[in-house]
């Protein structure tokens, strides 16, 4: 049979049959105690029916052999890193990492005797220069937060393979709809499922996908660290994933239109979105992504007050998190990147006038109106 397309996989793959009542959706199995005569089913072993079903769905979307589902994105990230790094090893990150990952790298890895370096996200030569004899992992995030930088995944994977290094990507910002890193040679794909996979700002979860062999290592460490997701939330996440494709498709479309709208707005200095022709990442994004995502950032100009803009938005809400069906904004300088040293903020381009925009599924005209009226007030008053 021909392989089904992602839209279909989102709805059907991994569905658990209901032989008792023939219900249309997966039954929920909340048991933490199963008969030992049937094997060793136990939630912390990632092998209960709902976990296995959801894992199949995510594997099919990421073109992976296996997936494990975790209680948060950070549980997925920390478990993955500790599965392939031990005392005496070295890992290379890009500097513009998700805050929690950066914190794990700079505050915790050294306590396990694991060294790390940062390489310039947009320079493959710098990644090559940072490789040492004990380098075991290269870890990237693309598109990156919040400036939507794009990293050459084929380039990274070739560099790593030549040096027998495992590659990991945090694919949260792209979602499996927009980017499938395993097809580009990346070994391990991680998601904060709290974002696009969940998509409704009401689930905290994570996932790790890779080959059977790599997932044995993640399983072995994962069952000891115990960062599982409750089967109830697994069931909810399966439900959310059924609409992943239609949600993200609409978010992509809205973001693209709003990026062009903001780019031409008198109150905006610059828009960071790989879908714009004038983005330095446009061609690379076209090559390695299916679409440009629903995330973008923009810098408000000097004559417009960011605070007044923020407080006058009516539809678009201020929020720490992202990728829900509702449009939200965030000021990285004050929130996600608050703890970054001043010099590092400057180096990465995180200014006080930078706004990160997670575009939802609302009518794009309504979103434009909301941005427009808030920007107008912000420019009048300053
Ligand atoms: C939110 C996020 C994480 C962390 O996920 P949690 O589910 O909050 O633990 C990791 N990476 C990226 C890119 C994120 O946006």
General description of the model:
The protein is of the alpha/beta class. It folds into 2 domains: 6-241, Aspartate Aminotransferase, domain 2 (3-Layer(aba) Sandwich), CATH 3.40.640.10; 244-380, Alpha-Beta Complex (Aspartate Aminotransferase, domain 1). The protein contains 14 helices and 12 strands. Helix 6 links the parallel strand 4 and strand 5 (166-170). Helix 1 runs antiparallel to helix 2 (49-62) and helix 12 (306-312) packs across helix 14. Bound molecules: pyridoxal-5'-phosphate. Pyridoxal-5'-phosphate binds next to helix 3. Pyridoxal-5'-phosphate binds at residues 72-74, 98, 100, 141, 145, 170, 172-173, 192, 194-195, 204, 206.
Quickly name the level 1 CATH class of the largest domain.
Alpha Beta
- Quick one: overall form? globular
Helix-residue proportion: 25-40%
Quote the average pLDDT: 96
Summarize the main sheet: 7 strands, mixed
CATH topology of the largest domain: Aspartate Aminotransferase, domain 2
Q: Report the order of strands and helices.
A: HHEHEHEHEHEHEEHHHEHEHEEHEH
Produce the secondary structure layout:
Layout: H1 6-12, H2 49-62, E1 66-70, H3 73-84, E2 90-93, H4 99-108, E3 115-118, H5 124-130, E4 135-141, H6 153-162, E5 166-170, H7 175-178, E6 188-192, E7 206-210, H8 212-225, H9 231-241, H10 244-263, E8 268-272, H11 282-288, E9 295-300, H12 306-312, E10 317-318, E11 328-330, H13 342-348, E12 354-358, H14 364-381
Parallel strand pairs: 2-3, 2-4, 4-5, 5-6, 10-11
Antiparallel strand pairs: 1-7, 6-7, 8-9, 9-12, 11-12
Helix pairs in contact: 1-2, 2-9, 3-8, 12-14
This protein binds pyridoxal-5'-phosphate (PLP).
Pyridoxal-5'-phosphate is lined by residues 72-74, 98, 100, 141, 145, 170, 172-173, 192, 194-195, 204, 206.
């Amino acid at each position: 049979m021909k392989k089904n397309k992602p839209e279909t996989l989102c709805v059907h793959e991994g569905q658990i049959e209901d032989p008792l009542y023939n219900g249309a959706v997966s039954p929920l199995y909340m048991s933490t105690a199963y008969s030992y005569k049937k094997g060793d089913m136990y939630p912390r072993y990632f092998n209960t029916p709902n976990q296995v079903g959801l894992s199949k769905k995510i594997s099919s979307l990421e073109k992976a052999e296996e997936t494990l589902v975790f209680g948060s994105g950070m549980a997925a990230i920390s478990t993955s890193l500790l599965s392939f790094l031990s005392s005496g090893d070295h890992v290379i990150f890009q500097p513009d990492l998700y805050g929690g990952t950066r914190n794990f790298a700079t505050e915790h890895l050294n306590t396990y005797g694991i060294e790390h370096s940062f390489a310039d996200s947009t320079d493959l030569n710098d990644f090559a220069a940072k490789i040492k004899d004990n380098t075991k992992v290269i870890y990237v995030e693309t598109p990156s937060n919040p400036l939507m930088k794009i990293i050459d995944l084929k380039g990274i994977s070739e560099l790593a393979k030549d040096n027998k290094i495992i590659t990991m990507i945090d694919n949260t910002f792209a979602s499996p709809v927009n980017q499938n890193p395993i097809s580009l040679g990346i070994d391990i794909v991680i998601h904060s499922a709290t974002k696009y996979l969940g998509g409704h700002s009401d689930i905290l979860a994570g996932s790790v996908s890779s080959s059977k062999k790599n997932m044995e290592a993640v399983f072995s460490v994962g069952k000891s660290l115990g960062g599982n997701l409750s089967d109830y939330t697994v069931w909810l996440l399966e439900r959310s994933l059924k609409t992943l494709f239609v949600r993200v498709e609409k978010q992509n479309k809205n973001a693209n239109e709003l990026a062009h709208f903001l780019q031409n707005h008198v109150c905006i200095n610059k828009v960071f979105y790989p879908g714009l022709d004038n983005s330095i990442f446009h061609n690379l994004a076209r090559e390695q992504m299916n679409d440009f995502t629903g995330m973008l950032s923009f810098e408000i100009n000097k004559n417009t007050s960011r605070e007044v803009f923020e407080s006058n938005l009516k539809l678009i809400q201020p929020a720490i998190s992202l990728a829900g069906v509702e449009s939200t904004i965030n000021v990285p300088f004050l929130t996600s990147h608050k703890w970054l040293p001043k010099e590092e903020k400057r180096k990465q381009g995180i200014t006080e006038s930078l706004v990160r925009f997670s575009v939802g599924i609302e009518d794009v005209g309504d979103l434009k109106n909301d941005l427009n009226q808030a920007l107008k007030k912000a420019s009048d008053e300053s």
